[in-house]
Specification:
With 480 residues, the chain is an all-alpha fold. It is built from 20 helices and no strands. Helix 17 runs antiparallel to helix 18. The chain is globular and about 65 Å long.
Length: 480
């Protein structure tokens, strides 16, 4: 059947992307005010119809992506970049999809522009008539008074968008989407440069850039995780090519978007230590990447003029419970069983989760240094472990590690599992940004189907994957 071919998948995915975008005009995360007649609630009947259309579109997009990946894994060659353009284009002028976070970004940019302490208060400090006021009115309830957990580099970009657009909702959102598209371009460039491991670049782009989780939440929802991942992955590529100083500069900038990018410094250090060898190489790898990135972070903070408050706001998100956080769920359950106030127990379990994640990251770095694991793949695994054990987990956080694993070994069991998880987690949030119960049901159903598919059609067995990792590690690091 033509629809099951690579060309058919491209057109099926395009139809799905159009459905997601068109449904979003009625059922997306629309602003409370300031939509200019374009983005505004249009009655319950039209909203319901829009939601149905968006979900049907998402089903087509996920199905097309899944089939496309199967074809690429079988060795079919196709114009993946052309497919990416086709699937991205319908989302470019859609309202915010599946999240209201972009309104926080715009409001925080307005706070910086007006001289407010963005690390001391939330968007509620903005006046009713100033730039960013409409965005502040559309910020989700618990984020209204929450200080920004983001670095000054991102806040300066948000400030620039507000300055250029006057904080008007529609142009400001489109300005933030332009940043998201730039992040997507960075991811594409870095993934192509790293090669994707066995199976080549096309499959790597399929898992990293064509991924519906990325299209919906980075292009559609404009989450700054895409910019963090793009800068981080570009820095890793430069380090693999031997330009580790510039690579660490980019990782430092990625940290000034969101702090988890700092994990990449450890694995860049591993590359340096393996390439230079001996005690001198080890000392160089342990110290210099952190010094370079630290200098970038300090310089960016001073130049931005926002102060070093970002150092104390990194944990604010952990105060908000998310159902995808294993440590938060476990801590809450134990806390309810052990006493009237579950928060102290929950806090302890969350810290233990981070401690375990830290241990996993170190173990992966050790294996990479010993040559048993490709450092780039080790970084991908480390970021996935960090997400799994974090006190706050959102569906799009999976992209942190997924884009890195895709760039190193997309056609592996790990890549296959991350593809299944991506296809499942994209259902967790509704186009409106809420997390309805049926989102978890749909995600669970897709997860079960994906696991069955993995068992029947496994990609790259453990021996094959380990061998490929070791060879790549030697090619990337030892030969530089």
């Amino acid at each position: 059947m033509w629809v099951l071919s690579a060309s058919g998948c491209r057109w099926l995915g395009l139809a799905g992307s159009f459905g997601v975008a068109a449904g979003g005009w009625a059922a997306g995360t629309l602003p409370v005010r300031g939509g200019g007649g374009l983005w505004q609630p249009r009655g319950s009947a039209l909203t319901t119809a829009g939601a149905v259309l968006a979900y049907l579109g998402l089903a087509l997009l996920v199905a097309a992506w899944w089939r496309y990946g199967v074809l690429l894994a079988r060795g079919v060659r196709d114009g993946v970049l052309t497919t990416l353009v086709c699937w991205t284009a319908p989302l470019l002028f859609a309202p915010p999809l599946h999240s209201a976070d972009v309104y926080s970004y715009i409001a925080q940019g307005a706070m910086v522009l007006e001289g407010h302490d963005v690390y001391g208060g939330g968007p509620s400090v903005l006046g009713p008539d100033g730039p960013g006021a409409d965005a502040a009115a559309s910020v989700g309830g618990h984020w209204t008074d929450t200080p920004a957990p983001y670095g000054p580099a991102f806040l300066v970009l948000a400030q620039l968008v507000v300055k250029l657009t006057g904080g008007e909702i529609v142009p400001a959102v489109l300005g933030m989407r332009l940043l998201a598209v730039g992040a997507l371009a960075l991811i594409v460039w870095a993934v192509r440069g790293l090669g994707g491991g066995p199976g080549g670049r096309d499959g790597a782009l399929w898992l990293a850039a064509l991924n519906p989780l990325l299209l919906v939440h980075v292009v559609g929802g404009m989450h700054n995780d895409g910019l963090m991942a793009g800068l981080m992955l570009a820095g890793v590529l430069l380090a693999v090519r031997g330009r580790w100083v510039l690579g660490c500069v980019l990782v430092g900038l990625a940290m000034m978007v969101k702090s988890p990018a700092a994990v990449a410094l450890l694995f860049i250090g591993v590359m340096i230590a393996r390439r230079d060898g001996g005690v001198r190489g080890l000392a160089k790898g342990l110290v210099l990447p952190g010094l370079v990135a630290g200098a970038v972070a300090a310089g960016a903070t001073v130049l931005a003029g926002t102060g070093f408050g970002w150092l104390r706001t990194q944990s604010v998100a952990a105060t908000i419970h998310t159902a995808l956080s294993l440590s938060s769920d476990l801590g809450l359950g134990l806390g309810v069983l052990l006493g009237d106030d579950p928060d102290p127990v929950k806090g302890v379990v969350q810290k233990l989760g981070l401690l375990v994640a830290f241990g996993v990251v170190l173990a992966l770095a050790w294996r990479s240094w010993r040559g048993a694991l490709d450092p780039v793949l080790g970084l991908g695994f480390a970021l996935v472990a960090l997400v799994a054990l974090s006190p706050m987990v959102q569906p799009w956080y999976l992209l942190w590690g997924t884009v890195v694993v895709a760039a190193a070994a997309w056609r592996s069991r790990a890549g296959q599992l991350l593809a299944v998880l991506s296809a499942a987690l994209v259902w967790e949030t509704a186009p409106s940004g809420h997390t309805p119960w049926y989102g978890f049901v749909l995600a669970g159903l897709v997860l079960v189907l994906g696991v069955v598919w993995m068992r029947r059609n496994p990609w790259g067995g453990p021996g094959e994957a380990a061998g490929a990792d070791a060879v790549e590690a030697s090619d990337r690091v030892g030969a530089r």
